[in-house]
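Exercise 7 asks you to align residues with tokens for two separate proteins.
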Amino acid sequence: MIKSTILSFALVLLTSIASGQEQEDTSKTKKIDLIHADSLEFNSASSNAQMLKGNVAFKYKETDMFCDSAFMFKDSNTIKAFDNVLIKNNEGVQITGDSLTYFGNNKLARITGNVVLIEKDKTLTAPIVEYNMDSKLAYYFGGGTLVDKSERSTLTSDIGYYYTDIKKFFFKDSVVYKHPDYVIYTDTMMHETESDITYFLGSTD
């Protein structure tokens, strides 16, 4: 279902960000846990780094992260993960990519290389996606494409946000929505996945 509205995008976005920030503030001390690795070694080039190999698995609250190998840097509280990177949360969202950098102090995962986010019949692809483990917000700034199999639609935009907990997509700049029956060009758009309602915020062509 498609619906035009003059709903304030800024107000909705700020409200959602505030909600996510409240979640983040309550768990600043929570660290990611190493669940499994076939082998663990110390990097000879740095006493601060641990090298993990084989079926590596981490967990942060309700989010699981997997990869083939990783480096853990205790001093900076960061993780660099490589090959077959997979993030899964309890909202049914999966993100895959070639590599990942996890910034533990900010609870932020940056996934790069052939990034694919999947939830049910919706698939988002982008060169880089960042995912906040606390607010459960995934976003991209370098362009992305969303394909909805059920709607047989494709959407492209320069910037995109997906709040996985409240099931809302926000798209900004050079938004093109292609449906078998029509094509819409707009500056800003919001899509609610559960109600399947799309809001075009601003002028459309």
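Second protein for Exercise 7:
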Amino acid sequence: MRLSGFTLIEIMVAVSIFTIVAVICTGAFITANQINQKAQAIKLAMDNLNFALDDIVFKMKEGTNYRCITTDISSATDVDGALSSEGEASFSAQDCPNGSQAVAFRYPKGALGSDQTLVVARFITRVLPSGFSYGLIQMAQKKPGVTGQAFLDLTTDTVDIDQLSFLVRDATGSVAPKSLITLNGKAVVGHQQSGFSIQTLVAER
């Protein structure tokens, strides 16, 4: 009577094939998981950037008296420091065709009153103790006669802003004032980066 079954060589071949397939599938799964994690991290970084930009755009659309700040205000801690040469009472609209890294405006539009806020948005570079540096967007607000709020970060270190420019036109004309915002940078995920370039036109409503 002859017994049926697999020989040792057949079993070894089958196990080898299974191992190879398992290694390939595991590697593909790990790669797909890493790609998904990177995509999620980039999405979170871009969501952060979009939130910051939307906040500025919304306030500018509902605001008035657009004015670029052409002096260096990187060391200013609040609105008062940023507009030290301008002054709150004399703040007025002004064209800025050459662009600037900071913009100021009143929000919301209308007669100057206790409900109106003076807003400053700016680009700065932050250097950490480790030596790592990244660009970010900040905003500060101030109500008339009140001490200005300190600048707050609108973006995190997952977004590295390389360049931010505000151009202001028709600030004092008969048509609605406009500001062209140009933004370049990269989303940083570990040692990997994903570049972006954004341009949007804001017009007072």
